[in-house]
Amino acid sequence: MSDCIVVVNFKTYQTAHGASAEELARVMVSIETDARLVAAVSALDLSAVVAAAPGLEVWCQHLDPIQFGSNTGWAHPATAIERGASGTLINHAEHKISLEHVAALLEQVPEGFCVCACAADVDEARALAALEPTFVAVEPPELIGGDVSVTSADPVIVSGTAAAVREVSANVGVLCGAGVKTGGDVAKAIELGTSGVLLASGVTKAEDPRTALDDLVSEL
Ligand code: G3P
User: Fold this and answer.
1) Nearest atom within ligand 1 for CA of residue 180
2) How far does Cα 138 stand from its chain's mean position?
3) For residue 190, how far is its CA from the centre of ligand 1 (angstroms)?
4) What's the predicted TM-score (pTM) here?
């Protein structure tokens, strides 16, 4: 199961910003696992995190489909790539964008750059999958930040998304997220047909992030 992916979204948690983001990234890169661990960090922390944890896969939270030029305050893909981002997390429940935004971004980024588009439900996942991002991550908004994993609270949305996305495109991977905290949750996500998970508080709010990460990959 070495192709399993665990994406940790640092959001803007105090425990995962600035120097704490760098420290968490160092912990992530030191975890012994065959799973693919990814840190999805704020654009503001991107360079520092990349420098702090060589070898760690780092994505930039959100990017805008803009080019060099007069685009004050937008998140420029080419700069993110230059600063070490190998992917992005877009259309998160906390930062919704249009399908057109997703499509334009996909047209702009180079081959091999990971785009993980978040969906609130199966219908949105299907619509996003038609644009062929690298991953679609289904996250019921009401379960985000909670203590019950989507894999237990709503396994049908996970298996339903996996089936729906597969129907639309064989090239798009499926992740699930919201409330994911344990190795059991990750194993269940895989059993339900995903390639892995997207999570935040299970790591960023853990008393000991290393123990949390070790547990998350323990059943792979
Ligand atoms: O992007 C992951 C996130 O929305 C899920 O958050 O805290 O429920 O793992 P959390």
Assistant:
1) 9
2) 10
3) 17
4) 0.97
- Ligand 1: nearest atom to the Cα of 199: 9
Joined tokens for residue 141: 């908004």
CA–CA–CA angle 65, 62, 77 (5° rounding): 45
Print pLDDT tens along the chain (220 aa).
Answer: 458 999 999 999 999 999 999 999 999 999 999 999 999 999 999 999 999 999 999 999 999 999 999 999 999 999 999 999 999 999 999 999 999 999 999 999 999 999 999 999 999 999 999 999 999 999 999 999 999 999 999 999 999 999 999 999 999 999 999 999 999 999 999 999 999 999 999 999 999 999 999 999 999 8
CA of 143 to the centre of ligand 1 (A): 8
> Best substitution site from 5, 199, 216 to test ligand 1's pocket, by max atoms within 8 Å of Cβ?
199
Give the gyration radius of the chain's Cα atoms.
Answer: 16
Dihedral sign (CA 44, 65, 68, 57): positive
Nearest to 132, CA basis, from 106, 158, 167: 106
Task: Delineate the domains of the chain, giving CATH numbers in brackets.
Answer: 5-216 (3.20.20.70)
Among 14, 94, 95, 139, residue to substitute to test ligand 1 (most atoms within 8 Å of Cβ): 139
Q: Please report the atom of ligand 1 found closest to the CA of residue 203.
A: 9
Please tell me the distance between residue 200's alpha carbon and the centre of ligand 1 in angstroms.
4
